[in-house]
Amino acid sequence: MPEPSPKKVYFVSLGCPKNQVDTEVMLGVVRERGHTLVDSPEEADTLVVNTCGFIEEAKEESIETILELAQAKRAGPRKRLVVAGCLSQRYPDELATELPEVDHFLGSADMLGLTKVLDESAPRMAVTPLSRRSYLYDHTTQRQVIGRRHSAYVKISEGCDRPCAFCIIPKLRGPQRSRTIESLVEETEHLVAGGTREICLVAQDLTTYGTDLEGRPNLEMLLDALGAVDGLRWIRLHYAFPTTVTDGIIDRLADHPKVASYLDVPLQHVDTEVLRRMRRGYTEKVVRNMVERLRARSKYIFLRTTLLVGHPGESEEAFRCLYDFVEEGEIDHLGVFPWSREEGTLSAILPGRIPAEVAEERRLALLELQEEIRLRKHEAMLGKVVPVMIDGVSDESELLLEGRHEGQAPGIDGKVILTDGAAKPGEIVEARITQAEVHDLVATLDLSLSAAG
What we know:
The chain is of the alpha/beta class. It folds into three domains: 8-126, Methylthiotransferase, N-terminal domain (Rossmann fold, 3-Layer(aba) Sandwich), CATH 3.40.50.12160; 151-379, tm_1862 like domain (pyruvate-formate lyase- activating enzyme, Alpha-Beta Horseshoe), CATH 3.80.30; 385-449, CATH 2.40.50.140. 32% of the residues lie in helices and 21% in strands. The protein is built from 13 helices and 19 strands. The chain has helices spanning 17-32, 56-74, 86-90, 92-98, 114-118, 169-173, 181-193, 219-227, 247-255, 272-278, 284-297, 316-329, 356-379; strands at 8-13, 36-37, 46-51, 80-85, 104-106, 125-126, 151-155, 157-158, 177-178, 198-202, 234-238, 259-264, 302-309, 333-338, 385-393, 401-405, 416-418, 428-436, 441-445. The strands form four sheets. It has a six-stranded parallel sheet with strand order 2-1-3-4-5-6, with helices on both faces. The longest helix has 24 residues, at 356-379. The radius of gyration is 23 Å and the shape is globular. It starts with 7 loop residues before the first strand and ends in an 8-residue tail after the last strand.
């Protein structure tokens, strides 16, 4: 039987940073097997979409993308369409029936299954059940990082064991599976050797890292080990759980020279009754105590969170409690989402549904408040000199540079526009803030003050 010919592969990656890492693993499969990545579906003979199936909006985007690629598939002979990721994991049989134009389905832990697809030896349905033995990439994986080399995501664990009522993730990603500290250090060293200066640690819950491993290593131990990697400048933390943000983690956020003073903690809500219905396992007092501990330790720790409005049972009083918390806590970065009824979750069958228009009004009210807080915080930075990691030439003009200070994660928290000077991506320079806007800051760059990148 003749060997399958090399393929030209086109990718679309949807969803969260964790999904991006999965896509990068599949890109590594393509390169490792001698196939070629192409920039357009017209050039490709294999079309791959890594889907998200978390909430309704994400599912709709995934279906729309599949249909767009199906149309591209019909435009050329012998093209194959591959659907991978969380949507395949969640609805394998339904998708197989409704989308006959899809040639192969891979689940959320089936990244290496792309090998058989490219070798033309895979069945149409290759979605495997999730378990503690499900695939988890490590330092030996031939991962192909997307985008700028100086900043990369590193997934420290996969899956989740928490029973949150609104969340489908355990059914999409399986139980928690942590990587070893040794594996994570080796991957980071490899990334740094390739030009990475910032790593963003991602997991469903960073703060339960290692609880499933022998010896029970924890996030504090991991941060210390990663902090010893030569050439690494910033370690950024996404996503923590409120009840497991320890004093040791806060100490490292405040004092460790390589741990960015930034913490992403998806709180979801603060009203105790809503939290009980959400099965979050904590109360308003716990949330406020965590924020107070962070603020008391250092006023320079930037805090990002996401909130969920319109969950069944969210009364006007409960929303007012949430609104007051945002106003008093002065959160640095905030995402707000309306509750989405997801089949297979406990929240989907709870009474006390909130009309969609009310949930949207609440979302907009919080975002309007957050804009006021954010502008005020940005204006307080005027005249200050802050370290900024250069990302490259600005999207606004090739005459400008753009970067981020420690409190800005890639792609979600705004940026610093630099109006003068010259610096390379990945360098950290000192910049003086000259203009404050709601989303971005403007600064001047003084290379005489810059720290070597």
